[in-house]
Amino acid sequence: MPRLALRLLLLVALVLSPVASAAPDDKPLDDLVRRYLADYWERQPEIASAAGLAAYDGRLRTGSEAEVRAEAAALKAFLAEWNAIDPAGLASVDARVDHDLLGRHARIRLAEIERFPGWQREPGDYLPLSPLTALLTDSGRPLAERATDLRKR
User: Fold this and answer.
1) In the predicted model, what is the mean pLDDT of residues 2-15?
2) CB half-sphere exposure, 92, CA atoms < 13 A
3) How sure is the predictor about 20, in pLDDT bands with cuts at 50, 70 and 90?
4) The whole model's pTM is what?
5) Which helix (H) or strand (E) holds 121?
6) CA 5, CA 24: separation in Å to the nearest integer?
7) Closest Cα partner for 72 from 103, 31, 29, 43?
């Protein structure tokens, strides 16, 4: 569970950063952050749901090897783009921090896939019960709506 908390903390920091008011020099990073988060939510819908993004409540990842390998390939592509952005050329301290957080998050995800393949040995990765619990305990939405999303999962 601490890994999930760390992921959510890093993502909240990225999401809450002042992207809309960024200087023109920060635009390539801003675009990369938006695409990275969209990809992350698509590949980890249970984490998106736990972060409060209700659009992902009815979904779970499959945990298939092909899905995990595709995620690793996408992360390598993101990291190549990330490496091409020189943090010294970013206009704000916030952007430099975002650059650092994004790179760290992507490298950690890639290491989890390639070096520490929990997806091969941890049943929790392919039998995700915590997202189901999160739906059941979400008091911000009507029970009938949560039950519908639970059946979709």
Assistant:
1) 58
2) 15
3) very low
4) 0.67
5) helix 118-121
6) 32
7) 43
Residues counted in the chain: 153
- Give the C-alpha separation, 132 to 149, whole Å: 9
Token pair belonging to 105: 């998050």
- Cα–Cα dist 105/4, whole Å: 12
40-50 as b/e: b if 16+ CB within 10 A: bbebbbbbbbb
Residue whose entry in the numeric block shows the structure tokens 């890994």: 3
Using alpha carbons only, give the angle 8, 94, 24 rounded to the nearest 5 degrees: 120
Cβ atoms of 13 and 52 closer than 8 Å: no
pLDDT tens-digit map of 55-103: 888 887 877 889 989 999 999 999 999 999 999 999 989 999 999 999 9
Name the pLDDT band for 40 (thresholds 50, 70, 90).
Answer: very high
